[in-house]
């Protein structure tokens, strides 16, 4: 997660730099909201993907009891 936070900061800085380069200083609120949206989206995605890999690697996915495994599809 630390290296993903570093990548997130780099992507955010590039995006904000591109916005500033094209439009100038629009509003500080625009830059704050954009920063929050980028950081929130990327870090949430990284955390959820980490949980997917943790669940798969620890064997929790195979330990699920399927109550419908005896039923036949019709």
Cα Rg: 21 Å
Largest sheet: none
Instruction: Kindly name the structural category.
Output: mainly alpha
Amino- and carboxy-terminal Cα gap: 46 Å
**Beta-strand content:** under 5%
Note the total helix count: 2
Shape assignment: elongated
* Topology order in helix (H) and strand (E) letters: HH
Uncertain segments of ≥5 residues (pLDDT<50)? none
Would you kindly provide a written description of the structure presented here, covering whatever features stand out?
It is a single chain. The chain is mainly α. The chain is 72% helix and 0% strand.
Task: Provide keyphrases for this structure.
74 residues; mainly alpha
How is this structure best summarized?
The protein has 74 residues and is mainly α. It contains 2 helices and no strands. Helix 1 runs antiparallel to helix 2.
What is the topology?
Blueprint: H1 2-23, H2 28-58
